[in-house]
Amino acid sequence: MPFELRPHPMATLRPESSYLQRVWKESVYPLARQIGVTIVLPRVSPQPHTGRAFEGYQYAKAEGTAREYTHRILRAFFQEQQDIGKLSVLVRLAKEIGLDPNEFRSALQARQYAEAHREALHYAYDLAGIIAVPTIVIGEQILSGVQDRQTLRDVINEELREQRRKSA
To answer: Where are the domains of the chain?
Structure first.
């Protein structure tokens, strides 16, 4: 689901900052190694605003390729260190997954999906109460931020027990 920690015009963070260096070293990299995910702290500085990329997500969703789009954008940013704040980068990535690059560019330039993105953010911020990424919802529990494997297992097992109790 779309979520922007620092939407425009709020300043984004710089990857060379001690805060991001520490968080990635202490949390992100260990978890990624644990679950076998290749990820790097992108050197794009400052980090790009992602509103346009999320409008692209809304376009891809309307075209039935939201999953492919999301995967490609995340890989481009967190593995290939591409600047997903640039329209030219987004258009190239959209083309790679089979979207029409001219239609995609036109839709983003015309802000055709801006309202759909605003609605998704409204849902995340105001209705779902999301304040961090990642946020995982399991049953009634909302887990904000990076969670270790055991915490996830415990919460999932608790939810399964609760579902069995309700259906008994």
So the answer is: 1-128, 131-168
Domain at 1-128, CATH homologous superfamily: Glutaredoxin (3.40.30.10)
Q: Is 133 left (phi over 0), alpha (psi -120 to 50) or beta?
A: beta
Cα–Cα dist 31/27, whole Å: 6
User: What's the whole-model pTM score?
Assistant: 0.84
Per-residue pLDDT of the chain (168 residues; tens, 9 = 90+): 788 888 889 999 999 999 999 999 998 899 889 889 999 999 999 999 999 999 999 999 999 999 999 999 999 999 999 999 999 999 999 999 999 999 999 999 999 999 999 999 999 888 888 888 889 989 989 898 878 889 999 999 999 999 999 998
Reduced to 3 states (helix: H, G, I; strand: E, B; else coil), residue 142 is strand
